[in-house]
Amino acid sequence: MNPEAAPLLGTLLHTVGAAAAALCYAPQRYVKHWRWQTYWLAQAAGCWLVLPWIFAWFTIPELGAVLREAPGAAMMKSYLLGVCYGVGGIAFGVAIRHIGFSLTYAIAIGVSCVLGTLLPPVLAGTLGATLASTAGVYVIIGVLLGGGAMLVTGLAGFRKEREIRTEGAVSEFNPRLGLPIVLLAGVLSAVFSFSLAAGQPIADVAARHGAGNFQGNVIYLFSNTGAFTTTLFYCLYLIVRDRSGGEFVSAGPASLVRNYALSLLTGLLWYLQFFFYGLGHVRMGDFKFSSWAIHMIILILLSCGFGVAIGEWRACRPVTKLIVSVAIALLLGAVGLISYGNYLAALPAAA
Questions:
Q1: What is the mean pLDDT of each run of 10 residues along the chain (351 residues)?
Q2: Measured CA angle at 314 (ends 312, 315), to 5 deg
Q3: What separation, in Å, do the N-terminal and C-terminal C-alpha atoms of the chain show?
Q4: How many whole angstroms separate alpha carbon 228 and alpha carbon 201?
Q5: Distance CA 333, CA 143 (A)
Q6: What does the angle CA 17 – CA 337 – CA 21 come to, to the nearest 5 degrees?
Q7: CB 319 within 8 A of CB 143
Q8: Which of 336, 349, 346, 350 is nearest to 138 (CA)?
């Protein structure tokens, strides 16, 4: 057992990161005179490229030495898997056009949650050992319940989009095209969990240099850069197609300052989810693989909860309100099961 395991604190840190992720899209509605690709490339440069280096510089002692000593294979694998994750992000955006935001969000993150959590121990051959313990059974059931709860959330969100007009609601519902794309988005989004796992040898080197609980920040130099590579090429394609490159400098002084500030805020919120993910992950004890699930489930829970709190569901029919209430209850149950399983696993270490 890991004597430094603190899964309840880890869950709290995952919650902080998930809250940042749930809020990161809010600034987008105030961006003016920019097309999507202009805004998205500006915020991605902050989130995926600049902020990982800033945070690593301040939290990883002897960063230069760590990068020289870290295995090149781990760097490259983490980077390439990050590139695949970036493709998943693009597929996510395309799927929204065909099946709406709520279904896309729920299905993509639900698939990502289950695959990104369970495939690593399956491929490592440790899933059987996990299921052999009572604590492990709680965790696995929580992961599966969370995946199912996300689908219920998606159903509620889809009903809301049909009952009331909401920003970003789908205009041409085309499940034959949208569902395969959203499944692709979910599978490739799960790859980010693999990217982080592939970069663990780099984090181990950082830990030997005294990085402690901040060791995971060094992995983002490679995983996030991979995601930025894909985003860069896609956004440049859209910019060339739409001839929108001038928007970076020609939106007017006031708009430019506001748009760049909002892009930076979006990128910061998006990056903070990874920062707190790393802090939570190192505290999850024997079942670190459950970090991805608990982070994704709490993200959906908070996104849904924020919507309820600000009245987005007030105009919905009673059946839709009941469905979203059930979804929130199931999400809470999933978080409880995963947290309790990790708590049980840490008890012998605490003793």
A1: 70 92 82 89 92 96 96 96 90 77 78 86 83 90 91 84 61 73 87 91 96 94 95 94 90 86 92 92 84 89 80 85 91 91 73 43
A2: 100
A3: 11
A4: 22
A5: 10
A6: 15
A7: no
A8: 336
